[in-house]
Automatic annotation (TrEMBL):
Protein's organism: Nitrosomonas oligotropha
Lineage: superkingdom: Bacteria
Signal peptide residues on this chain, from the entry's feature table: 1-24
Keywords: Signal
InterPro entries tied to this protein: Ice-binding_C
All residue ranges annotated as the Ice-binding protein C-terminal domain in the record: 166-190
NCBIfam families: PEP_CTERM, PEP_CTERM_FxDxF
Coiled coil: none
Protein name: PEP-CTERM protein-sorting domain-containing protein
Species lineage: Bacteria, Pseudomonadati, Pseudomonadota, Betaproteobacteria, Nitrosomonadales
């Protein structure tokens, strides 16, 4: 009976974690995918929220390009996934435009990219940018590795690099679910 309750707690907790993860996610960019630059560096965070009806919001923040030199900027984010029908920038960020363009990204495995700014309008250290994308339906949030940030104007050779969010090991998810299941089991047992 006790094992049955533990199993039920783990399943319920797992469903809760998976269900709640379908609405929002945070990505931490810093693993070198291609180009010149440090192999591992935390350079930016991205929050994505599914607002419903195909409307998604994006917030790129905690941008730190100090490891790349004073001329470095984030020029684009490549996406391996569904292309939005339209994009609008939220005023007040580090760049005045965010546009979608076909292709781009390292290795040709990305479907499109969001370009940040134009000309001298560049996304640099300490700045943020928010944008909304429409027409994405209720598709799943990208998994790690389906998004890549393009850092340009670096002091490395070549002078640009693509960075992805690290992919957690399956053991990390298993430990998380077991830990949450045990917490649920002990809370239920106390009742």
């Amino acid at each position: 009976m006790m094992l049955k309750k533990l199993a039920l707690s783990i399943i319920t907790t797992g469903a809760f974690v998976i269900g709640s993860g379908a609405q929002a996610a945070t990505y931490h960019f810093g693993n070198l995918l291609s180009g010149g630059g440090p192999a591992a560096v935390h350079l930016a965070d991205l929050d994505i929220n599914d607002l419903g009806g195909g409307h998604w919001s994006f917030f790129l923040h905690n941008i730190n390009l100090s490891a790349f030199g004073s001329g470095a900027f984030v020029g684009a984010m490549a996406v391996d996934g569904l292309t939005p029908s339209s994009v609008t920038v939220v005023p007040g960020g580090g760049v005045s435009t965010v546009s979608k363009n076909p292709g781009g990204g390292p290795g040709g495995s990305f479907d499109f990219r969001y370009d940040f700014g134009r000309g001298s309008d560049k996304l640099k250290t300490g700045e943020t940018v928010s944008w909304d994308a429409f027409g994405l339906g209720s598709s799943h949030l990208p998994i790690n590795g389906e998004l890549a940030l393009h850092v340009q104007g670096t002091s490395f050779s070549p002078n640009s690099a693509w960075y992805v969010s690290p992919v957690p090991e399956p053991e990390t998810y298993a430990m998380l679910l077991i830990g949450l299941g045990l917490l649920g089991f002990s809370a239920r047992r106390r009742k």
